[in-house]
Amino acid sequence: MPFSLFKKVKKQKNPHPNCLCVFFFLLFIPLNLTISMAMLSLPSIQVCCLAEKRHKDSSTNSLKFKESNSRTTNYRKGSFHQERKPQKVNLEISPHRAVSAVRLMRIEFGGAFADLLNEKGKGSGDNEMGYVERTLGFCTRDLDDRDLRLVTDIVGGTIRWRKYLDYLILSLCHDPHVFDRMEPLLLQILRIGFYEIVKLESPSYAVVDENVKLAKIALRPGAGNMVNGIMRKLVLLKETNSLPSPQLEGDDRAQARALATLYSHPVWMVRRWTKYLGREEAVKLMVWNNNHPSFSLRANRGKGFTRSELVSRLETLKVPYELSPHLDDFVRISIGMQSVIQDGLLKEGLCSVQDESAGLVVSVVDPQPGDTIIDCCAAPGGKTLFMAACLNGKGMVTAIDINKGRLRILKETAKLQQLDDVITTVHDDLRTFPENNHEAYEKVLLDAPCSGLGVLSKRADLRWNRKSEDMEELKSLQDELLDAASMLVKPGGVLVYSTCSIDPEENEERVASFLLRHPEYNIDSVERYVSPEFLTEQGYYFSSPVKHSLDGAFAARLIRNS
Ligand SMILES: C[S@@+](CC[C@H](N)C(=O)[O-])C[C@H]1O[C@@H](n2cnc3c(N)ncnc32)[C@H](O)[C@@H]1O
């Protein structure tokens, strides 16, 4: 089942970060785990084939290998099968370095999502080593908790800082063609090394030695020499405080390019944010996006689990936490997610990972016991589940989504969280749904597909996958969905339009254009539902990463007069 779900989530052009989050946590239902993680390897066939060849080339190296007989998943011409084959365990290469390089290859060339491959992936160790072996030609000892944390830091950081790291690497290559023609694995090894030295400030010479060793063993001795040469230049420049730096000079476009390199974002985003926020705010936003994200957990009232009980469990686990000042059921954690997972809190449905910014959208809907609510773009269900938990067993949330796989995830999570008696799922296209459905609702939520520009700190790779052309396409879809959702609202009822974007063209502009097409709707200020710090001048809800240290989100409450 999760095999096909993952295919569907992955097929989506713009998978929503929340969708990925819920999908990811479902992977921890043990039965699903192995198949789901194996699924991640499908697109990496080519990479693996290349690596096998490379391994043959480098097999003359005198390595410290140990033979073991563990079970590995192998992939051959379109089908998975399990077979026993001896693994070559290399004891010289640190596991976190090998795993980081392979994860980066899978994210960049295999289409895997960065947030499906983070520290929470513990438990997938066998598969992880399978990928390492197929890509590098050997495996390492298993990852321990410390290694996993390092992998999370290195993979997330290297992806975020990719543009800046490539700028440095290119500057230190004696010939630009060397950079252009560099083989993918070699480039990943250099990026990792540069990130460790420049951003993590790790001990330089140890990092150089380790990365040289990895390049030699996974590729060939010449590759190791190249890593050695380039990285030693970097160390020298770092020690003398003379790293190359793009100059903030020239016209707007040239300055945007320099900022984009310095803060490692696409140029089009820098130009857009400079236009809407001004340079200072744009820089603060990029700094936020480059920081290690923190998470919040929502205690699941639907299962009778309170925030105090969640807090006791976190104290027992020695996970530092902070109570959310905005939402009664939420707790913030910045480290310790691995312990939360290992303790089974998510698997048992006792709590969910949900950002407060998303929780506040539910506050804007204001679900009350007895309500009948329709959630128009519901999957994978973050907001549906929170709304359902607020009903105290009385009322109903109808959850529509066009994506069958993600809707199935919602259904399964509803069951796990004992909320399935107050949630009905409908697989349909919202744009045609009102034609065949004549029921009207008091409360309608449209959490529209969007660019996700408010959640870039959590989705390390999203900035590189999102294109400026996507914005026009998204905006017309948002208009169509708003028109359809408006047909489901009872006279006197409320339509909440929300996104996890900070872009005014997806937010305020969509609402303004909707109000022009639908004079029967008026803005209802959200002041009664969220604290004043989240209230915009026009009466909308807006959470800003820079101002509130939460993900970016937007919501408008629109009342139907007739
Ligand atoms: C932003 S995500 C929803 C996230 C969800 N509300 C949550 O909190 O977990 C947008 C969803 O819209 C769905 N969607 C996109 N186009 C749709 C359409 N025409 N009809 C129904 N759902 C659609 C996508 O499948 C996706 O699951």
Explain this structure.
This protein has 562 residues and is an alpha/beta fold. The strands form 4 sheets. Strands 9, 10, 11, 12, 13, 14, 15 and 16 form an 8-stranded mixed β-sheet that branches. S-adenosylmethionine binds next to helix 2, helix 19 and strand 10. Specifically methylates the cytosine at position 967 (m5C967) of 16S rRNA. This is 16S rRNA (cytosine(967)-C(5))-methyltransferase.
Q: What gyration radius follows from the Cα positions, in whole Å?
A: 25 Å
Q: What summary fits the major beta sheet?
A: 8 strands, mixed
- Which regions are unreliable across 5 or more consecutive residues at pLDDT < 50? 1-65, 67-84, 116-125
- Share of residues in helices: 40-55%
- Count of extended strands: 16
Function: Specifically methylates the cytosine at position 967 (m5C967) of 16S rRNA.
Family: Belongs to the class I-like SAM-binding methyltransferase superfamily. RsmB/NOP family.
Protein name: 16S rRNA (cytosine(967)-C(5))-methyltransferase
GO biological process, one term: regulation of DNA-templated transcription
Give a quick rundown of the structure.
It is an enzyme of class 2 (transferase). Helix content is 49%, strand content 15%. With 562 residues, the chain is α/β, with parallel strands linked by helices.
Question: What is this structure's SSE topology?
Answer:
Layout: H1 2-11, H2 17-26, H3 30-39, H4 45-58, E1 65-68, E2 71-76, E3 79-84, E4 87-90, H5 95-109, H6 125-136, H7 145-160, H8 162-172, H9 176-180, H10 184-198, H11 204-218, H12 221-239, H13 252-262, H14 267-277, H15 279-290, E5 295-299, H16 307-317, E6 322-323, E7 330-333, H17 337-342, E8 351-353, H18 356-365, E9 372-375, H19 382-390, E10 396-401, H20 404-416, E11 423-427, H21 433-436, E12 441-447, H22 462-465, H23 468-486, E13 489-499, H24 508-517, E14 521-524, E15 541-543, H25 545-548, E16 553-560
Helix pairs in contact: 1-3, 1-20, 2-20, 4-6, 5-6, 5-7, 5-10, 7-10, 8-10, 10-11, 10-12, 11-12, 13-14, 14-15, 18-19
